[in-house]
Amino acid sequence: MDIIRIILSILLPPLGVFLQVGLGKHFWINVILTLLGYIPGIIHAIYIIVTR
């Protein structure tokens, strides 16, 4: 299941974080990072998925 989340995180980072933690603070942090730059959003999303 983590592989699917990682693939979704590459395509749309907030979706991968949402599937992992829901609508918590990490989701909103990821939305902001994705809006500021696509790559930081991907890095944060993969970090959240791998560490949880």
Automatic annotation (TrEMBL):
Transmembrane regions: 27-50
Key words of the record: Membrane, Transmembrane, Transmembrane helix
One Pfam family, short name: Pmp3
Subcellular location field: Membrane
Sequence similarity: Belongs to the UPF0057 (PMP3) family.
Protein's recorded name: YqaE/Pmp3 family membrane protein
Lineage: Bacteria, Pseudomonadati, Pseudomonadota, Gammaproteobacteria, Alteromonadales
